[in-house]
Structure formats: structure tokens, C-alpha cells
Design brief:
Among the domains are: 74 residues, Ubiquitin-like (UB roll) (Roll); 75 residues, DNA polymerase, domain 1 (Orthogonal Bundle). 31% of the residues lie in helices and 14% in strands. It has six helices and seven strands, in the order E-E-H-E-E-H-E-E-E-H-H-H-H. The strands form two sheets. Strands 4-3-7-5-6 form a five-stranded mixed β-sheet, sandwiched between helices. The protein has a two-stranded antiparallel sheet with strand order 1-2. Helix 3 packs across helix 6. The radius of gyration is 31 Å and the shape is globular.
């Protein structure tokens, strides 16, 4: 505490509180980090640390019938579940790859009514009445490869193979819409599929070969 005489009011003593904080900048940062960790970790310490959300009424139907590769499949689907998750982890169709999981690489490409879509950006509930085709559905019952698959093999398209199923599906969609594309048209149609190995010309050669042999 400190005292100071006021010149405006003689005889009056004004008292000021003098504080000396020991709270440093480092202590402040530690406190912010600690509080953030405690908040983010609350859900891991049981239901007693969280407030339960009210039950939803009129929820989305979860048991769906999906037409996949010509077969009707019954599957339990969460309201926000993507088609890629349903195909891979509910139906076991692992030919559909999960790459970026944000609609950029094309590894998860499937056909929906013969049009190529990124399945990682498509909600399963939106395609319950559509025809879905994955790479597993292209091969003939006797094991004969689809012309695009065979052409990609012949032209040495697959390298690491991770993007190959998505490349195949985009090529099939292209040739169904345009059976005889130019190389530039094929290049533009395949632009949504990335290849980490850089085998773009091999895949383009495969598209052109499959188109000429169809």
C-alpha cells in the first residue's frame, strides 16, 4: 500500500493499492494450453463430464436398400455416412479406395447411373434409388476383364495401383458417354483423377486403346 496527499483537498489522504503480479507471460501461455487440453479431453472421461444431447425425433431411416453392381444390398447407414465408407466398411467392396477423403484425388471414383462421382463426397442416403457400380462390378462372371481394365494392363497404366480403380471408373464413364473420344477429350475427362506415380500417359494410352477396340 502507498499513501499520497491530494493537493486539491488539503488534509485528505488518498490511499492507492500497489500490487506486484507474479503472473508471467509464460504462466499465461501455460494456463491457456492447460485449459484447452482439459476442455478437449472432457469427452474421454465418461458421460459424467458431458451434458447429454436431447434425443432427436423424426430421424433418418438407417436401414437402406442399395443397388450395387446389379445386386440389392441391405445396409445400416448413418445419416452423415459417405458412400465410400459404406462401400468399403459395410459392404466389403475395398476396390473403392480412400485417398484424400475430400473430393480431390479421385481414388474413390464410382459410377452412379453411369456417371462418375467421388464417393467420398457423396452421402449414401442420397443414392438409395440409384444404380451404383464399383470396380468390382466391371469384371464378367467368368473372370474376363472389362476392356478398360485390360487396356490399362496392356498399356502398363497401373504402377503402385492405388489410383487405378478410380482411373478405370472415370475411363468407363467417359467411353459410355463418348465411345470414340479424342486424346484431348480423354485427357480432360480424366483430369479429376490424380496419379502419384505420374503414369498419366499410360492411362491415356489405355483409354484410347479401349475406345478403339470397343
Amino acid at each position: 500500500m502507498s499513501e499520497m496527499d491530494s493537493s486539491d483537498s488539503p488534509g485528505t489522504t488518498v490511499t492507492f493499492a500497489t500490487t506486484h503480479s507474479s503472473w508471467s507471460r509464460r504462466d499465461f501461455i501455460k494456463g491457456v494450453i492447460a485449459s484447452g487440453v482439459s476442455v478437449s479431453g472432457m469427452s474421454y472421461f465418461g458421460a459424467g463430464c458431458t451434458t447429454p444431447l436431447p434425443a432427436q425425433t423424426g430421424g433418418v431411416e438407417r436401414l437402406l436398400s442399395l443397388t450395387v453392381n446389379g445386386q440389392v444390398r441391405r445396409v445400416d447407414v448413418l445419416p452423415g455416412e459417405t458412400l465410400a465408407m459404406t462401400l468399403r466398411y459395410k459392404l466389403g467392396l475395398t476396390g473403392t479406395k480412400l485417398g484424400c477423403d475430400r473430393g480431390e484425388c479421385g481414388a474413390c471414383t464410382v459410377l452412379i447411373d453411369d456417371v462418375n462421382y467421388y464417393s467420398c463426397s457423396t452421402l449414401t442416403h442420397r443414392v438409395r434409388d440409384r444404380e451404383i457400380t464399383t470396380v468390382e462390378g466391371l469384371e464378367s462372371p467368368d473372370g474376363t476383364l472389362h476392356p478398360v481394365q485390360q487396356a490399362f494392363v496392356d498399356e502398363l497404366g497401373p504402377q503402385c495401383g492405388f489410383c487405378t480403380s478410380g482411373q478405370v471408373m472415370s475411363a468407363v464413364a467417359l467411353l459410355r458417354a463418348n465411345p470414340n473420344p479424342t486424346r484431348q477429350e480423354a485427357r480432360e475427362a480424366m483430369a479429376g483423377n490424380l496419379c502419384r506415380c505420374g503414369a498419366y500417359n499410360h492411362y491415356l494410352n489405355g483409354v484410347m486403346r479401349a475406345g478403339s477396340e470397343a
